Amino acid sequence: MYGFRKPFTVATYEGSEFNGIGFKTMIVSIQVIGYMISKFIGIKVISEMPANRRAVALLGLIGVAELGLAVFGILPRPYNAVGLFVNGLALGMVFGLVLGFLEGRRLTEALVAGLCASFILADGVTKSVGKWVLDQGVPEDWMPFVSGLIFLVPLVISVAVLAKVPPPDEDDIAARSARHEMTSQERWALFQKYGLGLSMVVAIFLLVTIIRSVRADFAVELWNGLGTKPDAQIFTRSEMIVALGITLVNGLAVLIRNNRLAFFVSLGICGLGLLVITMTLFTQQQGAMDPFTFMVLIGFGLYLPYVAVHTTVFERLLAMTRERGNLGYLMYVADAIGYLGYVGVMFAKDLVSTTDSFLQFFLMFCWFTVGVSVVCLGIAWRYFQVLETRSAVTPAVEGAT
Length: 401
Prior knowledge:
The chain has one domain (about 1-400): Growth Hormone, Chain: A (Up-down Bundle). The chain is about 75% helix and about 0% strand. The protein is mostly helical. The protein is built from 17 helices and 2 strands. It is globular.
């Protein structure tokens, strides 16, 4: 999926500006707007999607996404931006469909950690592919379409294999609870019941999504601001290290059988990520860190809470409470809010005109994220701790241990 979504971000589109807005900022924002709208639509579609329709839906969405990239290549600037809107609108529901195959299992954390590692690594690999395609002389506007073609056959094979995955067995259901398609009433009832705690988790996810997305979509500008001219391999090298670390930390949660303990450990992992970000920012501002180490550590710190929410926080919340629902619903609520925030930041970002000032903008927002997220994490921890003390989830914990 990332092969159809991310390669275009490696191009700089220098010299293209419309109504005072840089063309790259415009197309990144337009794709993200489509992606964001797709996340809001996905709250309903993903939570209600029958298992037997997932594979067909995946292939259909990818086909529409590649068609959007063809439009991007055919139309002149800035009208070709509509192609990236269509691309984002199609791709926004792909992750939720894949997640549906993996949730509600004793190995869910390990499987989803692997999935998250794949998209962390894919962020770098697909940019490397995009840079390679540009180096072959393919024009910037056609590079995304050509890059997508490279990933088309592997994607079809992967979806065919994924369609063969058996559903959770009885032991999985006993350990993690059965997962169900949800009606609108059930979705609203679940969020109302745990509103404050979920809102704090979503707020953390919102801020981390913004940093993670800025780092991903404007990696070239950040590397340049740090004084390093990136080559085709640097994106893959940096993200491979991040992916390995994130997979190890979050995947190990599968070893914790007690759902309550695993839930609070996942909140602790979020706190660890915030600590890593803080230490990285402080060290970098002291001039004691090279650009490569900075990009790796800031990526590791922000992906710790980002992936913990994907792998464990919502998964174990459903497991320990035994509430009727599914992981796709909770993830798409968080994703929709996260990308809504990112769209706002994209427009604010264009007020920063130089590479160096953009780096400072990024660093400042990182500090803001850490400060607000620490407060939200404390509230969420206390909320769910009190909830457990009041025995609201005690029977579920005993049944899932």
